[in-house]
Amino acid sequence: MKGIILAGGSGTRLHPITRAVSKQLMPVYDKPMIYYPLSVLMLAGIRDVLVISTPQDLPAFRRLLDDGAEIGMRISYAEQAAPNGLAEAFVIGAEHVGSDPAALVLGDNIFHGQGFSGLLQRAIADVTAGETGCILFGYPVRDPQRYGVAEADADGRLLSIEEKPEHPRSNRAVTGLYFYDNDVVEIAAGLSPSARGELEITDVNRAYLERGSARLVDLGRGFAWLDTGTHESLLEAGEYVRVLENRQGVRIACIEEIAMRMGFIDPAACYALGERQAKSGYGEYVMDVAKSFAG
């Protein structure tokens, strides 16, 4: 499965702090925001990732992540000149996806929970085996009217999906993580812009719903899903990460550690990556986990 991180947009809700830097390069406590969605794809076992961003921001992402080789990944880049909708990621990324299934994660979404890697890998296995064409991830929210809302039966089969409904049929918000079979490329290419001039990801999901080939995986208790689109939510996300890391002594979305534990790189390579950042607590942590893993 190929991965796509959509890290475009102008971040207007975070102005003025995003007037000079991409939102997805802003810190969420101790690491750049893009580390969090990248870590999701890595935990799923995806090693070939396309980062889509604005022409002015792409050079900064390249400086941060390079080609991904040092963490055992292959990272490439593509431009989204204007915020033309989430589904445009599959138009821009058609060559990257090729004939493979694809995962899309939004660059400002943070996921965390016990057993997340296994859940992701099982979902990919279902798509790869042709058991379903689309897997969405739902999260219970107090105010579903603000989100795309999905309704599913007891087996997880998607029954309906609505964008910001006045009377929601469930309290499950559709998160910014999507798994699709290869048909998504053709579906996205055939979309017409919505009334707001965008290629809507909800229209992609409806296409799979109409085929009877969409499922909803419920991220319930034990999971956290955080959006970082406002000043308040950005601060709350940083505080969430800070509290967990300080209490548990582990780092969330530490891409060097994940690469080592997933077998993308060996402990020596992980230690060397930490050594390059040794003056920070983050670098010290990477060296410590590498030594512990090797021992």
Report what the structure shows:
The structure is a single chain. The chain is an alpha/beta fold. It folds into two domains: 2-264, Spore Coat Polysaccharide Biosynthesis Protein SpsA, Chain A (Alpha-Beta Complex), CATH 3.90.550; 266-294, no CATH class. The chain contains eleven helices and 13 strands. The chain has helices at residues 35-43, 58-65, 88-92, 94-97, 116-128, 183-189, 201-211, 231-248, 255-261, 267-275, 281-294; strands at 2-6, 27-28, 31-32, 48-53, 74-79, 102-106, 109-113, 134-140, 148-152, 158-163, 172-180, 214-218, 223-227. The strands form four sheets. Strands 5-4-1-6-11-8-12 form a seven-stranded mixed β-sheet. The protein has a two-stranded antiparallel sheet with strand order 2-3. α2 (58-65) links the parallel β4 (48-53) and β5 (74-79). α9 runs antiparallel to α10, α9 (255-261) packs parallel to α11 and α10 packs antiparallel against α11 (281-294). It is globular, with a radius of gyration of 19 Å. The two termini are 32 Å apart. The model has no long low-confidence stretch (mean pLDDT 95).
Descriptors for this entry?
295 residues; 2 domains; seven-stranded mixed beta sheet; 11 helices; Spore Coat Polysaccharide Biosynthesis Protein SpsA, Chain A
The main pleated sheet reads as: 7 strands, mixed
CATH architecture of the largest domain: Alpha-Beta Complex
**SS element count, helices:** 11
Give the proportion of residues in helices. Answer: 25-40%
Helices and strands, in order, run as EEEHEHEHHEEHEEEEHHEEHHHH
Oligomer: single chain
Radius of gyration of CA atoms, rounded to a whole number: 19 Å
Tally the beta strands.
13
- Determine the CATH topology of the largest domain: Spore Coat Polysaccharide Biosynthesis Protein SpsA, Chain A
Distance between the termini: 32 Å
Structural class: alpha/beta
Number of domains: 2
> Would you identify the CATH H-level superfamily of the largest domain?
Spore Coat Polysaccharide Biosynthesis Protein SpsA, Chain A
Contiguous uncertain segments of 5+ residues: none
Q: Which shape, going by the Cα principal axes? A: globular
Strand arrangement in the largest pleated sheet: 5-4-1-6-11-8-12
What is the CATH top level name of the largest domain?
Answer: Alpha Beta
SS strand fraction: 15-25%
Mean pLDDT: 95
Keywords: Magnesium, Metal-binding, Nucleotidyltransferase, Transferase
GO molecular function, one term: glucose-1-phosphate thymidylyltransferase activity
Protein name: Glucose-1-phosphate thymidylyltransferase
Catalytic activity: dTTP + alpha-D-glucose 1-phosphate + H(+) = dTDP-alpha-D-glucose + diphosphate
